Amino acid sequence: MIPRMHSKSLSFGAAVALVSGMLAAEEPAVPVGLQAELTAKIAAYDRNYTARAGGKAKVIIVSKPGDAESTKVANLARSAFGSLPEVGGLPHEETLLGYSSAKALSDEVSKQKPAIVYLSTGLSSEVPGIADALNGKDVVTVASVAADVPKGAVLGFDLVSGKPKLLVHLTQAKKQNAAFKAEALKLMKVFE
Prior knowledge:
Elements: H1 2-25, H2 32-43, H3 49-53, E1 57-63, H4 68-82, E2 92-98, H5 102-112, E3 116-119, H6 127-133, E4 140-143, E5 155-160, E6 163-169, H7 170-175, H8 182-185, E7 188-191
Parallel strand pairs: 1-2, 1-3, 3-4, 6-7
Antiparallel strand pairs: 5-6
């Protein structure tokens, strides 16, 4: 009888560990406020940023409707970006957008012409479709979750030895008309 209970508790423990790992994968490794600051700085190293932004940079912050964590991270991002004096050296405005589909996001990018689209948590399974839908659009997607960069977000952040590390998906950056200067790329982990 005791071995059976032990076996069940291990199975339950393994299930808890698995679910915890899945949830942790959707949490930002780098605090959202620091992500906003780093995004604001790195934007200036994109050769096409000033032309893309015009006189005022628009930042669309996308969240997954009905997902409390996604909404929380999106609101933190809006507040963090909003508190910055400039994004990439330009004045800016932030807009929250609930995600419905990659096509709807692409249409919104065509309509609003943002310089940056920040992807909150809860959208990881949608990132490949978002990347495809934004091919040819002049916008930089920034992932709140590091694992979304290899899936097709242009920029993201991870912690390496306790320090924030910039991530870039270079192939997707080119597809979305982002051209980061060599001095910035030297500081990033590059995905292709």
